[in-house]
């Protein structure tokens, strides 16, 4: 992988860029419009939003103003917890598509595994996929037991599982399980929400390559076959986060980074959330 536009191929043949821009907590309106435009101008082709981020309209405006053709972009959004269920997901999807100004979505994810709801939600995603409205369907924050439960009834298996993943939470078992089932793992909060960019070991490794700790983490994702979606609203950092193709971590660097694992979450626990 040599370039910010390089892609992984999901098991259904759809190509998804390895690196994208996350826009959680980016304000709708000018902030998200400018952020999306800067990222696309930098070369990003994948944007990760959600109904729950309340910025789908601004994402659409940023895409429109970027001048890049729709078919060259990969757009992800997610069904919010309160919208889960079969009919309500179908309605939530149409509302997201209207805000995003899209006819066809690249990837639609179940945002969180809401108990008693996610299987009905999945049936709605399968229908939309079969109708050609969504190119790939997947989940987010699913543990192994959620995936196994979902697959007892699913007709189509998830193409992606987007989970919290960074050097303090390396998710070895889930990664192994997903690899076995050809479910692409995607890292959310890859930089630990910014907490990891001053980590001493990551900075030491970064210094060897004249790179930053953020770049080392993102490179660690890519070399491990993990799709990654760092968030920044700062043009310099948006560029920095995509400038990870001119160096290669050694097996020893990767081992050292893996050894930082503490199973530490900065976000919510998928087995214990109440929203
Ligand atoms: P992140 O790990 O990407 O960290 C972002 C923060 O790190 C920024 O706000 C900034 O403070 C800092 N930062 C970014 N680049 C930097 C750089 N080069 N140098 C120094 N500091 C830098 O955190 P995130 O936004 O929580 O996660 C990324 C994306 O993942 C989100 O925007 C969203 O799209 C997705 N996400 C999904 C879920 C989910 O439940 N599916 C949950 C959280 C996030």
Automatic annotation (TrEMBL):
Similarity section: Belongs to the aldo/keto reductase family.
Pfam families recorded: Aldo_ket_red
Domain called NADP-dependent oxidoreductase: residue spans: 20-262
PANTHER family in UniProt: 2,5-DIKETO-D-GLUCONIC ACID REDUCTASE, NADP-DEPENDENT OXIDOREDUCTASE DOMAIN-CONTAINING PROTEIN
Family matches, as InterPro entries: AKR (IPR020471), AKR5G (IPR044500), Aldo/ket_reductase_CS (IPR018170), NAD(P)_OxRdtase_dom_sf (IPR036812), NADP_OxRdtase_dom (IPR023210)
Transcription listed as a keyword: no
Organism: Paenibacillus tundrae
Keywords: NADP, Oxidoreductase
Name of this chain's protein: Diketogulonate reductase-like aldo/keto reductase
């Amino acid at each position: 992988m040599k370039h910010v536009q390089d892609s992984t191929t999901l098991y259904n043949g759809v190509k998804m860029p390895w690196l994208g821009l996350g826009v959680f907590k980016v304000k709708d309106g000018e902030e998200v419009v400018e952020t999306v435009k800067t990222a696309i101008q930098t070369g990003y082709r994948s944007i990760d939003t959600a109904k729950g981020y309340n910025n789908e309209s601004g994402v659409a405006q940023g895409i429109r103003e970027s001048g890049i053709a729709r078919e060259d972009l990969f757009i992800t959004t997610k069904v919010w917890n309160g919208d889960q269920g079969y009919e309500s997901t179908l309605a939530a999807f149409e509302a997201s598509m209207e805000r995003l100004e899209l006819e066809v979505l690249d990837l639609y994810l179940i945002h969180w595994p809401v108990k008693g709801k996610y299987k009905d939600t999945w049936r709605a995603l399968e229908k939309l996929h079969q109708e050609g409205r969504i190119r790939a369907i997947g989940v987010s924050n699913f543990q192994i037991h959620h995936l196994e439960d979902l697959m007892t009834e699913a007709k189509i298996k998830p193409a992606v599982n987007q989970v919290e993943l960074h050097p303090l939470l390396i998710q070895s078992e889930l990664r192994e399980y997903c690899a076995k089932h050809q479910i692409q793992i995607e890292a959310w909060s890859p930089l630990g929400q910014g907490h990891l960019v001053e980590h001493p070991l990551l900075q030491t490794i970064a210094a060897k390559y004249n790179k930053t700790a953020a770049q080392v983490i993102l490179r660690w994702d890519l070399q491990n076959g993990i799709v990654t979606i760092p968030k920044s609203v700062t043009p310099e950092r948006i560029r920095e986060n995509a400038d990870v193709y001119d160096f290669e971590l050694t097996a020893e660097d990767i081992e050292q980074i893996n050894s930082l694992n503490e199973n530490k979450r900065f976000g919510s626990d998928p087995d214990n959330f109440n929203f």
